[in-house]
Amino acid sequence: MSKLNIGIILGSTREGRLSPQVGQWVKSIADQRGDANYEIVDIADYKLPLLGEADATEQATAWNEKLASLDGFVFIVQEYNHSITAALKNAIDYGREAWNNKAAGIVSYGSVGGARAAEHLRGILGELLVADVRVHAALSIFTDFENAFTPDAVFKPADLHLTNVNGMLDQLLAWSGALKTLR
Ligand SMILES: Cc1cc2nc3c(=O)[nH]c(=O)nc-3n(C[C@H](O)[C@H](O)[C@H](O)COP(=O)(O)O)c2cc1C
Questions:
Q1: What pTM value is reported for the model?
Q2: Phi and psi (nearest 5°) for 84?
Q3: In terms of C-beta density within 10 A (0-12 exposed, 13-18 middle, 19 or more buried), how is residue 1 classed?
Q4: Ligand 1: residue whose CA is nearest its atom 14
Q5: Burial call 31-65: b when 16+ CB within 10 Å, e when fewer
Q6: How crowded is the C-beta side of 15, counted as CA atoms within 13 Å?
Q7: Which of 61, 83, 148, 159 has minimal CB crowding within 10 Å?
Q8: For residue 2, how far is its CA from the centre of ligand 1 (angstroms)?
Q9: CA angle 82, 124, 183 (to 5 degrees)
Q10: Spatial contact of 70 and 102, defined as CB atoms under 8 Å apart
Q11: 90 neighbors 51 (Cβ within 8 angstroms)
Q12: Residue nearest (by alpha carbon) to ligand 1 atom 1
């Protein structure tokens, strides 16, 4: 059986964002497992305008083609005003069928591990028939990053998060494989 394709979606797009560091860390853990094809999916690359504000046929097509090529998702979620970023919500809204009957795991960060944003995302995913797995890596902006609110921010995750990332990936692959049979 061919390997599943899992997209690691960076949820933030701002200048100086921390999500690329977190996404690369998740990818390096995932790649060591060798059990799926893992790739970083950067929303910023798709230059999606706010939905409905401009003709974005080309960008929307490229984004949906990328989503359609994936069997499951790891969302790198950062907390903005107790929820997910507007960029992530907008990108989610650009897709419909391409999300359906797939699975997702969450790695979040913020002052309380990005927990409030992660829980909001779970509600959104339900509407899109994306099955979100239970295990969740929640990183602290205070203890898992050095100089977090400066341009010199460096991601230094505590060892304990490794267990949760692997536990999340175990569940994600199981459900991504199971849901593939529905599509
Ligand atoms: C507009 C905005 C709102 C934020 N609101 C929250 C918040 O409600 N709770 C929280 O824990 N952190 C909050 N933060 C801090 C972010 O979690 C932190 O800056 C994080 O690095 C943002 O992710 P990014 O670097 O990938 O953009 C906020 C940051 C921004 C830019």
A1: 0.98
A2: -80, 170
A3: exposed
A4: 80
A5: eeeeebbbbbbbbbebebeeeeeeebeebbeebbe
A6: 1
A7: 159
A8: 38
A9: 150
A10: yes
A11: yes
A12: 80
Token pair 């529905």 in the structure block, residue = 182
Q: Which residues contact 109 (CB under 8 A, 6 or more apart)?
A: 18, 22, 77, 78, 79, 138, 139, 140, 141, 144, 145
Q: CB of 78 closer than 6 A to ligand 1?
A: yes
Q: Please name the helix (run of DSSP H) or strand (run of DSSP E) that holds residue 168, with its range, or none.
A: helix 160-180
Distance (angstroms) between ligand 1 centre and the Cα of 152 equals 16
**Cα 54 to averaged position of ligand 1 atoms, centre (Å):** 27
Nearest alpha-carbon partner for 26 in 174, 172, 137:
137
CB 137 within 8 A of CB 167: no
Phi first, then psi, for residue 176 (nearest 5°) are -65, -40
Each residue's pLDDT tens digit in the chain (183 positions)?
Answer: 699 999 999 999 999 999 999 999 999 999 999 999 999 999 999 999 999 999 999 999 999 999 999 999 999 999 999 999 999 999 999 999 999 999 999 999 999 999 999 999 999 999 999 999 999 999 999 999 999 989 899 999 999 999 999 999 999 999 999 999 999
